[in-house]
Specification:
8 helices; 7 strands; Rossmann fold; globular; seven-stranded mixed beta sheet; alpha/beta
């Protein structure tokens, strides 16, 4: 049974009142029996630690009529929950595993979502540089690697948002020089609870100038020699 925690904000009602989230949950659990999509399977944890954790971004960033690239979305987090609560979003998802793309294709049909593009491939191979209003990534890589997979695709004036746990400080320090080199600037960090004893943060980086042409490099170079 789902237990509503009183301290969480009004966005939780958007999950409970929208039948698409229940459909999402049911299909996620069904497919997860044959494909490794998530270790979190009980309804409370999926709603709080996946769905709520995804849509919290709408507290801090205007999503209306924005283009959003989700890098390594896996089972669709955070972009699909954000699309469910704001249909004006134009979403592109890139993921390197074709099985996950297949899951998302069927999920989008079940949820009747429009303007969701799915790309099987690696983020660093995308050609749409300096073009998205928002780029998101959740639980993909350390920040000093992640920034080169994301910031090159953010339009000037747009944002890259990294979903991270509370122990982000070392990662952020490692990434400082790379953020600057890629045309970004740390704007703010927002902390929020997702359970009685756990909080997460959004690291919000603004794109203030175009990324130099030599970035992103190949993944092997990014991994072996982060900026």
């Amino acid at each position: 049974m789902f237990v509503k925690r009183a301290y969480l904000d009004q966005h939780l009602n958007q999950l409970l009142d929208n039948p698409k989230f229940n459909l999402y949950y049911e299909y996620l659990i069904e497919v997860n029996q044959v494909m490794n999509l998530t270790r979190i399977v009980d309804i409370d944890s999926v709603y709080y630690k996946h769905f709520y954790d995804s849509i919290i971004l709408s507290n801090y960033i205007d999503l209306n009529n924005k283009s959003l690239l989700d890098v390594g979305a896996g089972a669709g987090f955070p972009s699909i929950p954000l699309k469910i609560i704001n249909d004006t979003l134009n979403v592109t998802i890139v993921d390197s595993l074709n099985k996950r793309i297949g899951f998302l294709e069927t999920l989008n049909k079940k949820l009747a979502l429009d303007n969701v593009s799915l790309i099987h491939g690696r983020a660093e191979e995308l050609e749409s540089r300096n073009s998205y209003d928002l780029v998101t990534s959740r639980a993909v890589a350390r920040l000093n690697i992640l920034i080169e997979l994301t910031l090159p695709f953010v339009a000037v004036g747009g944002y890259f948002i990294a979903y991270k746990a509370l122990n982000y400080h070392e990662e952020l320090k490692e990434a400082e020089s790379g953020i600057k080199a890629l045309g970004g600037k740390l704007e703010r960090i927002e902390e929020y609870p997702i359970s009685d004893d756990e909080s997460h943060v959004l690291i919000i980086i603004k794109k203030i100038k175009k990324t130099p042409e030599q970035y992103p490099r190949t993944y092997q170079k990014i991994k072996n020699n982060p900026l």
